[in-house]
Amino acid sequence: MNDHDAAGSSATDVLDCRGQRCPLPIIELARTLPTLAIGTVLRVLADDPAAAVDIPAWCRMRGQDYVGSPAANAYDVRRLS
Amino acid sequence: MAPTARNDITTRAYFDAATAAPLHPVARQALSAALDDGWADPGRLYTEARRAAQLLDAAREAIAECLNTRPDEVAFCASGSHAAQLAIDGVRDARTAVGALAVHSAIEHSSVLRAAHRGPSRQVAVDRFGHVDMDALAAAVAEPAVAVAAVQSANHEVGTRQPIAAVAAACHAAHVPLYVDAAQTVPWEPLPAGWSLASASAVKWGGPAGVGVLAVRKGTRWARPWPIDRTDPWTVPLPLVVAAAAALRSVRVDAATESARLSGLVARIRAEVAATVPDVEVVGDPVDRVPHIVTFSCLYADGEALLHALDRNGFAVSSGSACTASTLQPSHVLAAMGVLTHGNIRVSLHPGVRDDDVTRFLAVLPKVVADLRAEAGVADL
């Protein structure tokens, strides 16, 4: 089972924010998600400990769908709008 | 009357009272007097010693009255963090026959978490506002082998109060002693009913650093880790305790007026920050909270940069963002509540804060945030 299957979705786009500290991964997420088609799942790779809290919080504030964390330091976000 | 000389009128506003309130003028006077009259060993029998003992007794009585407890239930130690450790270690030591498990809310002060994690522990989740999950707490304390439950009276980062009456009822039903870290409420009010152990810290009410207060309710099984009473006077910094007691008594005289005024200022900060700063999350319970703490997080802003920019503008604030912590971990409080941790600012007020200070802060903040976002190139996000 590969990472994409583990997420139970077609997470084809990956945003690698490893090595970046807060709030940079959130900024990159906010820049990247609107460039994708609505319904697309973006996988954010981030090893900053704040990402685990801030990515779901950003989704809630921005009305996007936080799908979950399929693996350590990986977070799936679906564009809703 | 509230002291007015505790902020530099022209340039600085100090908004970090939840860490340490500025020294109350009465504390300075009492400290000076106690250094003159309270230097002798209060355990001796001559006149100088009796004078010192009287000062210590009076201070203990004053603090006990402010906590609404008995003087012989009050002990002094080095800090609020030290008191937390004594509370949890001492109750674990006394209840070895029952068990060593410490049940605690996810948003206790780090000193309480450190003490709890010295043995087996169980964490109870909180909701988005920071209120402890009462069903989970009641279930956790009802399990076997629980030594103690630790739930703070109010949170030090977001100001949310905990439902201590309900927590105490659950602990009482399970025959588990409740330790209440009351550091953020003792400046304003007595201990909430239902505690078996409680702690406070003099720096939170304008007393000097170096005085923690531990209260142990009569009948609570608690093993004193070492003598902290009058038989070993040098474990009590007598002049500091006298100063702490004088300051607490003094702030309590104006507590009703000041808590209403500061609560109004916090309500104003909550409303205006939400209205004037785009993409901000104001966190904590808007109503069920202490008077003096407000916390908010600014999307895409760097917490450390925000703190420094506010400092340059004359405002001392703190932050729960990871970049401002020595560990580079985000605040465990904000994380447990599931609220944004970056761009976080905590404003905590004290009686020396003037309404004008808050007005200036609210005037400056939107531009400070906007400038930082512009610098980071995120203004369009």
Biggest chain pair interface: A-B, 18 and 24 residues
Q: Name the average pLDDT of chain B.
A: 94
CATH architecture of chain A: 2-Layer Sandwich
CATH T-level topology of the largest domain in chain B:
Aspartate Aminotransferase, domain 2
Describe this entry's structure for a reader.
The complex is a heterodimer of chains A (81) and B (381). The longest helix of chain A has 12 residues, at 51-62. In chain A, strands 1-2-4-3 form a four-stranded mixed sheet. Chain A has three helices and four strands, in the order H-E-H-E-H-E-E. Helix content of chain A is 31%, strand content 26%. The radius of gyration of chain A is 11 Å and the shape is globular. In chain B, helix 6 links the parallel strand 5 (146-150) and strand 6. By secondary structure, chain B is an alpha/beta fold. In chain B, strands 2-8-7-6-5-3-4 form a seven-stranded mixed sheet, with helices on both faces. In chain B, strands 9-10-12 form a three-stranded antiparallel sheet. In chain B, strands 1-11 form a two-stranded parallel ribbon. Chain B contains eleven helices and twelve strands. Chain B has two domains: 13-23 and 254-375, Aspartate Aminotransferase, domain 1 (Alpha-Beta Complex), CATH 3.90.1150; 25-253, Type I PLP-dependent aspartate aminotransferase-like (Major domain) (Aspartate Aminotransferase, domain 2), CATH 3.40.640. In chain B, helix 3 (80-94) packs parallel to helix 4, helix 5 runs parallel beside helix 6 and helix 8 packs parallel to helix 11 (355-375). The chains are: A alpha+beta (81), B alpha/beta (381).
